[in-house]
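Dear colleagues,

As part of the handover before I leave the project, I'm documenting each prediction I ran so the next person doesn't have to rerun anything. This entry is a single chain, and its sequence is reproduced below.
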Amino acid sequence: MSGITLETLLSALGVDETALRQNLGHVEVPKPNDQSEAEWRAIARDLKRSNDALLQHTEMLACGLGACPACWGADPDCQECGGVGHPGAFLPDERCFRRFVVPVLKRLTETLDPHDDSPTRKETSNEQS
């Protein structure tokens, strides 16, 4: 199978190359001549696994924040929400909310200075004393 490209492999694995590049940022992909077919397949499997994990985490975070997991309210043509699914648009999924949001709220509650009217962290107030 000579002349196989990364795009062909990603397509065969059902991976959206644009979404993958957006999720992974900049990934240096070796030139086709530098890799054997087996190495390309391994690279494609790893990229798919990484992409799947990122998509799963993004979906859980969106659900925990009450946002559309497909577009986060950014796509007026979204089939899931019609573009209205920004964070807080829907009731959050309780399990995802507890996993992602509650720890942040606890941290903020512990670090806010109750004697300060502004949302200043205790660390900042203690450093100035």
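The CA atoms of residues 3 and 47 lie 20 Å apart. The chain has a mean pLDDT of 79.

All the best with the project,
I.
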